[in-house]
User: Fold these one by one.
Assistant:
Number 1:
Amino acid sequence: MSDEILTVLEVATLLKVADKTVYTMAQKGEIPAFKVRGQWRLRRVDIDAWIQAQTTAPRRQGDGDA
């Protein structure tokens, strides 16, 4: 289903990070998200595109391990 809507917890599981990490990223606009009555939601297609962009984007100096 292309219009699948995910919760913060579902995205955290998908990305294998803490739910607080996804929540903070959504608040800062670092990941595509929107609110429904105060709760963050994320479209699966947007998350898939975001993951693709993260894996194909050139690394900037200072990113990653030193």
Number 2:
Amino acid sequence: MSIMETNGGSVVAMVGKDCVAIASDLRLGNQAQGLAANFQKVFSITDRIYLGLPGLATDVTTLYERFRFRTNMYTIKEEREISPETFAHLVSSTLYEHRFGPYFIEPVIAGISAAPTASPSAVSSGTLAPPPGKKWQPFIAATDVIGCINFAKDFVVAGTASSTLFGVAEGLWEPDLEPEDLFETISQTMLNALDRDAYSGWGVVVHVITPDKVITRTLKARMD
């Protein structure tokens, strides 16, 4: 058995129209034995960046504190909020520093940023307007245990249910989903995938990140 399956857990992130969503299960286990049904695997880094950490439970806590520290140091030094793209490279470099004794974590990053646009007057209808000359750009990425980044324009997955999540997400995801449709898609993807993985489940928490708010919902799932 892989050490990545010791505590179980899965995370998926999806792109929508001017929004992004990230979801994880809530199970903490010791292989097939369930220990808790409220273990947090997704963390808020900034108002518009969320980080999923599936893998070994002890490394989840360690890495979250390390990323939080480095993000705060970046904010103090640069006097601005870190962007999702920069944070993804911060995650990658942190993991690569420990490549000879790696953390057993496969991070998933989800966020939105204000990207340059050719039309300064273009703004997102119905949402908080981005800075002049920019538009809201969803961003998702995942890395392996030594920090190799996988950028994607649709969805990324990690954890013990990865293979099932890939299959379900391929069938359900569509481009330019509105926030509520994106929530429904990522929720159904997680719930259906978790039914086929013994090391994940026991509830799902979903975060939908939009320019003006973050919608967080907790879903019930099978407890067997």
Number 3:
Amino acid sequence: MANFFVHPLAVVEEGVKIGEGTRIWHFAHVRKGAKIGKNCNIGKDVYIDVDVEIGNNVKIQNGVSVYHGVKVEDDVFLGPHMTFTNDLYPRAFNQDWEVVPTLVKKGASIGAHATIVCGVTIGEYAMVGAGAVVTKDVPPFGLVYGNPARLKGFVCYCGRKLKEKIGEDEEHVIFKCSHCGRDVKIRKEDYERYLKEKDL
């Protein structure tokens, strides 16, 4: 007996691996070779392409398209109707198109209707704002939004924006979260990028 749930109106092709406790809702389509981890929630009208890898505890909201070449690590949130791409030079008539991979790292969140242009990495616990168009890498804990998306600050593990800078070491600027009290280390090169992009 399956230890996961697939709605009768979902389509799950042969060769898909689904982890314990995962739920796949109506009108979702999961293509062959895809791997979905434990305790995931795959919403209505989600499309998961061939050989896509989804980690554990991932929440994919309604209408999301996760195309071939995308890897999603554990604890990621994909907001309603956001989408990935996988071709930098799309033409309907191309015969030799190349899949360009995209990586979403542990704990990251991507807002509703955001578009992730292929070839980027979304860092650990980063936050991508609703409607953003991401064209370059997002650093760990980075907060990006806009079109094109710019680095506008940093967020805590809990998702709140970090405002209180409490010190630094050789490699990091250290913030304290005013909501949960955790200390978060931001790489100095990422903080310097923020200073350049915050007013763009």
Number 4:
Amino acid sequence: MLEERLKSWIREHQPLMADLQRVRELDLPQCYIAAGYIRNYAWDILHGYDRSDRHSDIDVVFFDPDDASEDRDEHLERRLKEETLNPKWSVKNQARMHIKNGDGPYQSTADAMSMWPETATAIGARLNPAGGIELICPYGLEDLFGLRVRRSPAFLKREYYLERVLRKEWASQWPLLTIFED
């Protein structure tokens, strides 16, 4: 039920649909637009706000252990920025992100996302070849729709999580959120 609701909202957001189409054309394995773009859009709707596109970046995540070079990500990011004239693109192959995060190697995009700081951030969407929307959400959608910000069970850096929540100022932007310290 929640999945269909989120998919419906995504279908109604033409800029997001255009970005999903653009990302699908990259033809990257296990590739999604994720994090703040999806989360903030849902929170705006749940708060009754007009769509504001309150995202600082468009996170494109994929998983390709055969070519985990940072140069590839940078090339794809530049391409998207040039094609769209939008500086918000961020492309990261999750096959190498475990090094930056100090984790063991990730096995997939979903595995990498399960290590993200918040459950409501670990959500992504993509278009399949037939144009249907597919979601990836290792912790489900209950926290997103319940307006709950909680630390992902696999994210062990509690202080970083708390600092991030304050820095992002989510509570002032979306006052209906319930933020859990642990």
